[in-house]
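TASK: fixed-backbone design
INPUT:
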């Protein structure tokens, strides 16, 4: 059985430490060979938009664009459908490799065998 980790990050620039922790854990898990699915919800939704992660700064933390690239290189990033709609973010307005999906897909992922889910 492979290890699977689903991380939902709700924090963005409004809670920078919690936000950075979520992306850091996701990137480290990918680097460790864990199958990772990172969900962007709430204020973290903006980081699905090209250029937005480069605006995020947190002293002593890895740059957010680097963490996103690491997750995309070996995992999956999903933007919440409702969160995207509320912010008028569309499929053609997100980073390459980011998908938009809703609660049904999230529930399906977290209910799988061998899945650990974390929320930040």
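OUTPUT:
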């Amino acid at each position: 059985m492979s290890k699977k980790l689903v991380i939902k990050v709700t924090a963005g620039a409004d809670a920078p430490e919690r936000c950075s922790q979520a992306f850091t854990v996701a990137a480290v898990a990918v680097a460790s060979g864990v199958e990772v699915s990172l969900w962007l919800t709430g204020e973290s939704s903006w980081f699905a938009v090209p250029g937005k992660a480069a605006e995020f700064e947190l002293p002593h933390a890895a740059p957010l664009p680097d963490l996103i690239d690491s997750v995309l290189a070996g995992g999956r990033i999903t933007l919440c459908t409702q969160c995207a709609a509320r912010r008028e973010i569309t499929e053609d307005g997100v980073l390459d490799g980011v998908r938009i999906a809703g609660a049904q897909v999230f529930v399906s992922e977290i209910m799988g065998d061998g899945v650990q889910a974390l929320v930040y």
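COMMENT: The longest strand covers residues 4-9.
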